[in-house]
Amino acid sequence: MPRRRASADDRKLERLCRAALGGDVEARGRLLDESTAIARGVTAAFVRDEGDEVVQTTLIRVHRGLDTIDDASRFRAWLVAVALNAARDHLRRKRRERGSLVIVNSDLLSGQEDGRTLAPEAQVAAVEEERRLRAELQRLPEATRRVFELILDEGLDVAAIAKRLQVSESAVWSRIHRGREQLRRARDGGGGPE
Questions:
Q1: Over the range 69-98, which residues count as b (16 or more CB within 10 Å of their CB) and which as e?
Q2: Does 79 reside within a domain?
């Protein structure tokens, strides 16, 4: 799957990342501010309650790991991987606490153990994760796929997606739930997304 074209937001993130890597403290703060909405949008698809905790974990990992980034143009992909990993870690912790099964697509949430390591292999893994996710999303119904694209590409949260698509927030949550279930079934060999 070809790499998607960089949007104006991606270019802004890249500029902020480059400046932050160059020691600009203000740019680092603005980069973290911009990252908040993206992290919130990504984690909302996987963690409904306690999402702020997962976003906070993501931002801490981004802050600590920022200096390890080799390619500022891949900041968004790295941020998404860090947010997905934070969501995965949160769900694992909750599952252990409750002792119950939490259904998540572990293939979608696999990758780095934390956001601080960006070895070349980890960068390749993050790119492959994004490709795999996007390929699976193409198999979802248009309305469901659009919700996930708005989360991943634009970092929108549920309220913003509802407003953009002119549907209720509960309709967005339903699409997220259906999409997760369809992706889980595809992963488990129970048939592809319907």
A1: beebebbbbbbbbbbbbbbbbbbeeeeeee
A2: yes
Candidate from 35-39, 85-89, 169-173, 185-189 with smallest mean pLDDT: 185-189
* Residue 146 to residue 140: CA distance in whole angstroms: 9
Q: How confident is the model at residue 30 (pLDDT cuts 50, 70, 90)?
A: very high
Q: What is the DSSP letter of 5?
A: P
CA 181 to chain centre: 17
What is the total count of domains within the chain? 1
3 falls within a domain: no
The model's pTM is 0.53
Contact, 193 vs 186, CB < 8 A?
yes
In a domain, 123, yes or no: yes
Task: Give the length of the chain.
Answer: 194
Amino acid at 174: S
Closest listed residue to residue 70, CA positions, set 9, 111, 17: 17
Burial of 173 (C-beta count, 10 Å sphere; 0-12/13-18/19+): middle
Give the three-state DSSP class for 6.
coil
41 is a domain residue: yes
Asked if residue 19 has pLDDT above 90, the reply is yes
| pLDDT interval class at 153 (50, 70, 90) | confident
